[in-house]
Design a protein that fits this description.
The structure holds two protein chains of two kinds.
Chain A: E1 2-27, E2 34-42, E3 48-51, E4 57-63, E5 67-80, E6 86-87, H1 107-117, H2 123-136, E7 138-139, H3 150-155, E8 158-159, H4 161-174, E9 179-186, E10 196-204, E11 207-211, E12 223-229, H5 232-235, E13 238-244, E14 248-258, E15 264-268
Parallel strand pairs in A: 7-8
Antiparallel strand pairs in A: 1-4, 1-5, 1-13, 1-14, 2-5, 3-4, 6-11, 9-10, 9-12, 10-11, 14-15
Chain B: H1 21-29, H2 32-49, E1 52-54, E2 63-65, E3 68-76, H3 77-101, H4 106-109, H5 115-119, E4 141-148, E5 154-160, H6 167-180, H7 182-187, H8 196-206, E6 215-218, H9 227-237, E7 240-242, E8 247-250, E9 253-258, E10 261-264, E11 267-270, H10 293-298, E12 303-305, H11 311-314, H12 322-330, E13 337-338, E14 342-343, H13 347-355, E15 360-364, E16 373-375, H14 381-393, E17 398-402, E18 408-413, E19 416-425, E20 427-430, E21 434-435, E22 441-445, E23 459-467
The chains are: A alpha+beta, B alpha+beta.
Chain lengths: ~270, ~475
């Protein structure tokens, strides 16, 4: 499936920002599963590009002239191989056994993981865990915030894709299965969710398998991968800091569509 | 259980060892009131110089003087040469291990260290995977903690490869001794150490491929327990002392703000833990670091000393493998011994540890500074039981070692002079070559019978002498 992406992010500041710096993970990598036909990042000034610790393409944007707006536009076309279900990996998956602040399993998550997986450590068992977790955690925008931990969201029985993914990672790592966070885009027919999305990958039989907890999917047919990491903080599309600026208003606008149709979604904050 | 201690000054028959005879003669000849007066003078001078440390967990959060003892710890030069060679060998192997671990991982493939032990370790840094460092050096500055058992054998207690501290006390203790007792230094040949700041600066400069790199010392700030040392070393080296907020990153390069405008920084001697270096890459709530620093580092535009991710090599659960690292990378036998260590993550070793808690020292694999450890022979049964519960709940977080007797050195106490337990931390610098100044920091446990020498636990310091063997 050929997907066309147009992702606009804009930050508006109440006052002048004296200087700012952003880590941007907004460029998809070429892989057997996704072929990048074309990709472009429009930024206020040229950014340095490098590969980050998790192998993601990272742009570092530094602005040190006063500014009250930052506009970031990512766009391009990517061909997804729907038949490709797993991704090979040269490195060791062992570092992905570690927990982080956001993915630390508490007693409740540990018990939930054990109860729903039992002795099996295969794709079917993790599929069941995914369904049980999604059953337990409603999709409720606004119920959590960007700093909510897996344990907090799980206790609140609600969250968004980021929280679902963190809770799933916490379960897997406590079971001894390496797991990582994925951020990217999802094409949906029903416009049910925003198109900027997060899901998980689990290491099974020597490859990474996808689990989109929010959408109860374990085949990444319509998922365009941008970045991976231990948790949201490593993989999120934009992470930045600034001096000055006061109150911030963020506006994100994503269009993910099959190359021929256009479906527009909008998220405003 | 009675244990025999190795005393640095007196042998088992109570005879003064040769390298201490000159000092013993001086001590016997000097009237006690003069000694007492000099000790008061030392306290006053240390106070004025502001040589303090902050005690964590102290409600008042006050800075304290580290108690200084005027009886030096002395080591004969011939013995020191062995210790020095052993420290150099060890730090070389540890640097080779880090370079291997973050690249080919030959030692894991050879089956010498279980991969999960290091790769699933919290101190393993993904950011270092495949990153090439100039000269392949990770721990430019290392502190190797040594103790001596009952027969005088030196053992390595731990390697400190992150941000080892204490070198300022080593230097200040010497200055103090030379000021108070110049006659001692005239009477015998004591190896000088005051060139340490020069060696450190050379080491830091040689960590960068540039000819004359701009070096700074990065401190977490004045609330850090070692702030005095950060300021001291910056001043001694003649470089800027900076906090994170004094620097910024632009286009993958690091700059510091100065009154004359932005100046590019090439080498950062950072006394800030990995997790605080870059709030965009690590701990998001940290304000101590520099946003963007990791991207500049990974682009090769700035050197960090020590490198990120060295903690995986000085983790106490990795410590048992250091002798094997020496054999693997250097094809040499270790000069200095490891303390036998039980790894509580292994069920059979855990059961041994649980059965022998009153005899053992139990440490957290991630701990430092003497916080969170159990000294079995000195602990109450209540403390032992509390530790037993912690061990059972999370065995992998602990290791255990036999309680070493630790050598003693005569020390001024309330009622005259008495033996107190000591350790030794030499500081190993790795640059173009691996070297150290003679000696190191001697810490002394001032409480009678105590084996914990950490300054945070009421330890003091002594000047450390490497004495040329006399021809007499």
């Amino acid at each position: 499936m050929k997907l066309s992406i147009s992702h606009d992010t804009a930050y508006y500041y109440e006052d002048q920002v004296r200087a700012s710096i952003q880590y941007l993970r907004l460029t998809p990598q070429e892989s057997p599963r996704q072929r990048v036909l074309g990709w472009q990042l429009d930024l206020p000034r040229p950014a340095q590009v490098q590969v980050d610790p998790y192998g993601n393409i990272l742009h570092v944007l530094t602005l040190d002239e006063p500014h009250d707006t930052i506009r970031i536009h990512a766009s391009g076309q990517v061909d997804i191989d729907e038949a490709c279900e797993a991704e090979r990996y040269d490195g060791s998956p062992l570092p992905f056994l570690r927990s982080t602040h956001l993915t630390q399993a508490d007693q409740a998550l540990r018990q939930f993981a054990l109860r729903n997986v039992g002795e099996q450590r295969d794709r079917a068992a993790l599929g069941n865990l995914m369904l049980a977790l999604r059953e337990h955690m409603a999709y409720t925008p606004g119920s959590t915030h960007v700093e909510s931990t897996a344990a907090e969201a799980f206790a609140g029985c609600a969250g968004v894709c980021q929280d679902h993914t963190h809770a799933f990672l916490a379960c897997l790592r406590t079971l001894g299965i390496p797991a990582r966070y994925v951020s990217g885009y999802l094409f949906t027919d029903d416009c049910g969710h925003v198109a900027s999305h997060a899901w998980a990958e689990a290491w099974l039989n020597g490859a990474w398998y996808s689990f989109d907890i929010t959408n109860r999917l374990n085949k990444p047919e319509r998922h365009l991968k941008l970045a991976v990491g231990m948790d949201y903080l490593d993989a999120c599309p934009v992470r930045g800091m600034r001096r000055g600026g006061g109150y911030e208003k963020m506006h994100a606008h994503v269009i993910v569509s099959p190359a021929e149709i256009q479906i527009v979604q909008q998220q405003q904050q | 259980m009675s244990r025999s201690f190795y005393d640095e000054m007196y042998d088992a028959n109570g005879e003064c060892r040769p390298h201490y005879q000159e000092f013993a003669r001086w001590l016997a000849e000097t009237p006690p009131d003069i000694l007492a007066q000099r000790r008061r003078e030392a306290d006053l001078l240390f106070h004025r110089a502001g040589i303090t440390f902050t005690l964590y967990g102290d409600k008042q959060g006050t800075e304290r003087l580290i108690p200084f003892d005027t009886i030096p710890r002395s080591i004969p030069a011939s013995e020191w040469r062995m210790v020095e060679a052993g420290c150099i060998q060890r730090v070389k192997a540890l640097n080779l291990f880090l370079a291997d671990l973050y690249h080919e991982q030959r030692i894991l493939k050879a089956g010498i260290i279980p991969p999960e032990q290091v790769l699933a370790n919290d101190c393993y840094q993904m950011a270092m995977q495949g990153l090439d460092l100039y000269r392949d050096i990770y721990a430019h500055i290392a502190g190797v903690d040594l103790v001596r058992d009952g027969d005088g054998t030196y053992y390595v207690l731990e390697d400190n490869l992150r941000t080892p501290s204490g070198v300022s006390y080593m230097l200040e203790d010497r200055k103090m001794m030379m000021r108070l007792f110049p006659e001692l230094f005239a009477a015998q040949r004591i190896a000088p150490i005051n060139h340490y700041p020069n060696l450190l600066l050379e080491t830091l400069k040689s960590a960068s491929p540039l000819d004359n790199p701009c070096v700074v010392v990065l401190t977490p700030g004045r609330y850090n327990s070692a702030y005095f040392e950060h300021a001291f070393l910056a001043r001694e080296m003649g470089v800027e002392l900076v906090e994170g907020a004094d620097m910024f990153v632009r286009d993958d390069k690091v700059y510091m703000r100065t009154t004359a405008g932005a100046v590019q920084v090439d080498v950062i001697y950072r006394r800030l833990d990995d997790g605080f270096l870059d709030p965009l890459a690590f701990s998001a709530d940290s304000v101590l670091g520099v946003p963007g620093l990791l991207s500049a580092y990974r682009s090769g535009n700035v050197t960090l000393a020590n490198a990120i991710g060295t903690g995986v090599a000085d983790d106490k659960s990795v410590y048992p493998f250091v002798p094997d690292m020496i054999r693997f990378y250097l094809s040499e036998e270790p000069i200095l011994s490891n303390v036998p260590t039980w790894q509580c993550r292994k069920p059979d070793e855990l059961s041994h540890v649980l059965a022998h808690l009153p005899e053992l020292v139990v440490k957290e694999t991630q701990g430092s500074g003497g916080y969170g450890m159990l000294v079995g022979p000195a602990a109450s049964s209540k403390e032992i039981e509390a530790f037993r519960a912690r061990l059972k709940a999370n065995p992998a977080a602990y290791i255990a070692q036999p309680t070493l007797s630790l050598s003693t050195c005569p020390t001024f106490v309330e009622n005259g002079i008495a033996p107190r337990h000591i350790d030794l931390r030499p500081f190993v610098l790795s640059g173009q070559e691996t070297r150290l100044v003679p000696g190191g920091l001697t810490r002394v446990a001032l409480r009678e019978g105590s084996l914990v020498v950490n300054s945070s636990q009421g330890g003091g310091t002594k000047d450390t002498w490497i004495v040329e063997d006399c021809e007499c």
